[in-house]
Amino acid sequence: MNGLHSLATGRGEEFLCGDPEQFKPPVCSAPTPDTRDEPPTSQLEASSFLSTRGWSFPELLGQGSRFKAIKRVHHASGGSSGSNEADEAEMGGIPIIVEGWDDHTLWPREMFSADWLIRNHGAEAIKVRNIRTYAETEVQLSDWLHRARSTPGDAYNLDSERSYAKDAECPEEWKKWLYLGVLPEKILPRRFGDLVTYFPSDLAPESLMCYFGVGDTLTPVHKDLCGSVGQNLMCYTENGGSAYWFMTASSDSLAFSRYFREQGLAIDLENHALTIEQLAKAPFDIYIGEQKLGDLVIVPPACFHQVVNHGGITMKTSWSRMTDHGLRLALQQELDIYRRVCRPETYRCKLMLFYAIQALSNALSSEPQS
């Protein structure tokens, strides 16, 4: 409660009094046109077309003097099952990979497979993005998976189409598995410590998504929404599939924004991926990790990152948690950026704080007086 109280009594939080309807986001006027606030382009910048041909983790680390390997820990080490590592990443602002979940006795190897998806959800429609043109189309999941299996593992030939199923709906069976006790409850969505739990169910944002990719598909540079903590689990791979993560420390967020704009790029629109050469010239540490089957990547609040898929099919499930630490970052830093570029905040942070304090206050008032 203390953390939420400090947020409520801090900078400009007079919104706590009054009707919750006042927290509806205002209509945003068009941003002032300049190099930072240009409208989203219809495609990724040309230099965003990265090819992972010839990439290896040791070789990438050697290409930049400030490239550092993301720390890896096994989920069974130390007896914390990854929860201590999540705390370390969130409060320290340094990304971490908790590995070895695919060795767990309850890992659903059959359910986390392309063939299982084809049999059980193949007829469902998913939206896929062609990273060459940024155009989105709708296809059946089975069609995409069959096409992905015949797609070369890299786009070295500059093919005109390379599609990525981003922000796909997570199968209900996968959702249920998350709560079977394999992963620590502390890092799961809508559990203790996640302020989204205080929202009424009809207002709670859904952050649990799936990402189905193939080599040289990517997610451009971005931060997770509103200062939230990100979790990303690699559930399935084929033909050596993996994903390379390029990440900053939370404390370098401002420096990264400045560096990105020095390249003449609009960082807040999430339509550009930096090349290895651009990353190597950055005047701060860049953390690199290769996410393989069973790896859980924990993304600290305000951590810039881009993800490039490598090799064959990769299937990940991802979710976010909004902690009081992340909410503080959102109120003090992130929402100003969202207003500047007229971007919906999704989490409705001030309303979230209202409901959290209301619920905690009601809980305290209902306790018997000593």
Write a structural description.
This protein is of the alpha+beta class and 370 residues long. It has one domain: Jelly Rolls. Helix content is 26%, strand content 21%. It has 10 helices and 14 strands. The chain has helices spanning 2-8, 57-61, 83-92, 114-121, 141-149, 172-178, 253-262, 276-280, 324-340, 349-365; strands spanning 67-69, 71-74, 96-99, 125-130, 136-140, 163-169, 209-213, 218-222, 229-237, 242-247, 286-291, 296-299, 305-310, 314-321. It has a 9-stranded mixed beta sheet with strand order 2-3-12-9-14-7-6-4-5. A 5-stranded mixed beta sheet has the order 1-11-10-13-8. A hairpin with a 5-residue loop joins strand 4 and strand 5 (136-140). The longest helix has 17 residues, at 324-340. The protein is globular, with a radius of gyration of 21 Å. Residues 172-338 form the JmjC domain. InterPro entries: JmjC_dom. This is JmjC domain-containing protein. It holds the Pfam family JmjC. Residues 1-47 are annotated as: Disordered.
Set down the secondary structure blueprint.
Blueprint: H1 2-8, H2 57-61, E1 67-69, E2 71-74, H3 83-92, E3 96-99, H4 114-121, E4 125-130, E5 136-140, H5 141-149, E6 163-169, H6 172-178, E7 209-213, E8 218-222, E9 229-237, E10 242-247, H7 253-262, H8 276-280, E11 286-291, E12 296-299, E13 305-310, E14 314-321, H9 324-340, H10 349-365
Parallel strand pairs: 1-11, 2-3
Antiparallel strand pairs: 3-12, 4-5, 4-6, 6-7, 7-14, 8-13, 9-12, 9-14, 10-11, 10-13
Region (Disordered): 1-47
Pfam families: JmjC (PF02373)
Domain JmjC: 172-338
